[in-house]
User: Fold this.
Amino acid sequence: MKREFWFVVGSQSLYGQDVLDTVDARAGEMAEKLSRVLPYPLVYKVTAKSNREISETIKEANYRDECAGIITWCHTFSPSKMWIDGLRDLQKPWCHLATQYNREIPNEEIDMDFMNLNQAAHGDREHGFIGARLRKPRKVIAGYWQDEKVQKRISDWMRAAVGVAVSKEMKVMRFGDNMREVAVTEGDKVEVQTKLGWQVNTWAVGDLVKEMNAVTEEEIDALYNEYLSQYDLATDNTAAIRYQAREEIAMKRMMDREGCKAFSNTFQDLYGMEQLPGLASQHLMSQGYGYGAEGDWKVSAMTAILKAMGENGNGASGFMEDYTYHLVEGMEYSLGAHMLEVCPSLAADKPRIETHHLGIGMNEKDPARLVFEGKAGKGLVCSLIDMGGRLRMIVQDIEAVKPIMPMPNLPVARVMWRAMPDLTTGVECWITAGGAHHTVLSYDVTPGMLRDWARMMDIEFVHITKDTTPEKLEEELMVKDLIWKLK
Ligand code: MN
Assistant:
């Protein structure tokens, strides 16, 4: 899907045609220049002077699939009563860019004509009032439009807004149910569809097996060769790799047929399959599909959304699970991994294909999987939980490191990190907030982008940073509990 954003500039008829022509030309120039540096085109739509123009533009923005959001700005003063009807009906993400065309106040040149043309400082305040009065979720970005910092903030907001569009189109294919007795992977699918737009439905594992049986040897040859071109081969069990290729082709075919961008499965229901998909799920994730193990459809959809928000629409984000800790003083780390399914977009080096026995689940044969170490660097982990009556997104800042030991007998991909503010306090905060053991780990989606996403989706957002204390967090959660009951 080609996506774009619309630039809607506010004004009024008071200033005469000359001023309006100047505003129109400058708005076009700004949109064009910004489009060269932003991840999505910014299309200048209108210098709006009336209720009717604004309403028509916003109706169109709501209707157009390619429009992922609007950016508004008031070069001149734009009386906000004319914005009420349009903004009330706005269904797309909204960013209010408080900027001005010129960077400097021109000492010699400034007179009342200049003041009347360049009055964003109070035009944007009038515009801000109506956003606040209407209680419309919006992002406010202030600063000079040619500054890199401002452009980066607009870029991040655009990526979050694209995350909103992807969320509204999200379809999740579930193979089998959730793992028996597990609580945190459950959730209200009707609420999630209403709030986030996700269509979450189940397909029988038997249908997948039927699809697998229809995959041809030639198709498997082609995907096998693709695996060899992307990964190092560290097993002579060709049959296991070919079996994973068969699984991948079948799952991809079913998902593409149904328009699904995410899937989940469970080791407790592999009826008719020889291996839990490992390499298959990992290679699908590398292509932008979301995945959640043990039937965790929430983390699956979030993985697909974070991937779409990242670099080039398929960033370094993947399904992750907190496994075990290193609690040596001064060297405290979490070790994250999964039975098999860690996305190669997190890898520091070229992943190796290995086959090993997998004791858990109903695997008849040893599944092939990609083994690698995760990248070092700043990132985050993100969990979406169902609090009963509302959804809570929990984001924690992390610092990933090169794993401090080689762990030669660990047969899965692994990522090592320290949660903020430090490992044990971070764990206390995460557990207090109710964060899941499954997360999306991302190196390129920022907490700010997820805060924007949560605001646009109208869900609770909790951010654990280097400055969070369990005491402050506990109070924050109590206050939010009240707020979300009232909402
Ligand atoms: Mn798990």
Remarks:
- Residues 223 and 229 are 10 Å apart (CA to CA).
- The radius of gyration is 25 Å.
